[in-house]
Amino acid sequence: MTRYRRLLWGLGALGAIAILDGALAAAWGETLPLSDINRLPVQEALPGPGRSGDAAAESGLSERYSGGYVLGPGDRIRIDIFNIPEFSGPENGVHEVLVDGTLTLPLAGIVAVQGLTLGEAQTALANRYASLLTRPPQLTVTLLSARPVRVVVAGEVNRPGTYTIELEAETSGSAGGGTGRQWPTLTQVIQEAGGITQQANIKDIQVRRPQRQGDAILTASLWDLIRTGDISQDVRLRDGDTIVIPKAVAILPEESVAIASANFSPAEMPVQVVGEVASPGSVTLPANATLNQAILAAGGFERSRARSSTVQLVRLNPDGSVDQRTVDVDLAASANDTTNPILRPNDVVIVDRNTAATAGDTIGLFLRPFTSLTAVLRLLGF
Fold first, then answer.
1. Which pTM does this prediction carry?
2. How far is residue 165's CA from residue 126's CA, in Å, rounded to a whole number?
3. Domain 70-145 has CATH 3.90.1150.10
4. Do the domains at 149-167+181-260 and 268-351 have one common CATH topology?
5. Of 3.40.190.10, 1.10.155.10, 3.10.560.10, 3.40.50.300, which CATH number belongs to 149-167+181-260?
6. Coil, strand, or helix at residue 48?
7. Nearest CA-CA partner of 115 in 102, 125, 106
8. Is there a contact between 68 and 118 (Cβ–Cβ < 8 Å)?
9. CA 223 to chain centre
10. Which long-range contacts (CB under 8 A, 24 or more apart) does 209-217 make?
11. Domain ranges of the chain
């Protein structure tokens, strides 16, 4: 009887092990593939306290705009399909997005990926291969190298137009010491466009970003960047962005001086100083320099000849018109519109002669023929 009980216990243990092994094998074989995972329902996020549904949706869109990379022509990606080396790895899985925004893949054929994030492209490829393979694939997509960023700069910059910027490599902080890619910033692109003009409104810059749901409009204030150090205002740009810098209605002189020291302003500007100064001609000044700086850069007034109380300021406007005005000079004044105005590139400062110099030059003009006659008579011995 004891021997019979032991035999029954042994058979029961073997049966339990077999059942457990079968359950594990079934669970392992029914692992949900990536394509099915993406079809699972996702709980919809609810607005937080004090936030409406629209505000929450706008916040979610902003996070999307600042987040995932969107594929486009020129991107190089790597596709890895688990246990299918013929379509995977550095030799068989590296592909470049063609100019029409598609990938040409073995077995799957042509797949459109332009405008998709890496996650969306991964889902689309998994779905495509799922109908072609015997079982759903375990598939991953990795970005190997990003295409150059092409942006448009419009408005108050010195050289508006389209600019193509290569992504700069940056060293990762990981122990492996790998390298990543850094998006170009708003100030970097403005520098490429020659810097802002003196009429630029840097407090309300718009960045228009194309998205599949429609264009997003981001706003940035470079004034907050230079005054408070808010680095979030130096927006990271994406391929296809359009930067619009509006024209300012009015800029205070003290603001112009502060903006001139920023790296997105032109470093220098040419100004002409002519007339009764020590070194008349073209002078190179810092951006947003004042009238007093121009006079001093030209060596200052000629004391015996210059009219130091007033000067003439001539300005060529962008529309081709010319403005000329008389400015009362005060070398002790700070930047202001009345006695020490901010200059613009290619302004002309004219320093007139004083009364004594004008009278002396007029008398010399009348006496010049007699002086020449006296010199001739001396040569003849008279």
1. 0.62
2. 32
3. no
4. yes
5. 3.10.560.10
6. coil
7. 102
8. yes
9. 15
10. 209/65, 209/238, 209/240, 209/241, 210/240, 210/241, 211/61, 211/64, 211/65, 212/115, 213/61, 216/61, 216/62, 216/65
11. 70-145, 149-167+181-260, 268-351
Architecture of the structural domain at 268-351:
Roll (3.10)
Distinct helix (H) and strand (E) counts, the chain: 10, 17
DSSP state of 247: B
243 in Cβ contact with 151 (< 8 Å)? yes
- Residue that is written with structure tokens 């030059």 in the block: 361
End-to-end Cα separation, the chain, in angstroms: 165
Give me the helices (H) in the chain, please.
2-29, 34-37, 53-66, 89-92, 118-130, 186-192, 222-228, 253-260, 291-297, 355-380
Residue with tokens 């890895």: 80
Q: Are 331 and 300 in contact (CB under 8 A)?
A: no
**Across the chain, what does the average pLDDT equal?**
78
176-218 pLDDT, tens digit each = 333 456 789 999 999 999 999 988 999 999 999 988 778 899 9
Query: Which residue is it, tokens 């000849």?
Result: 305
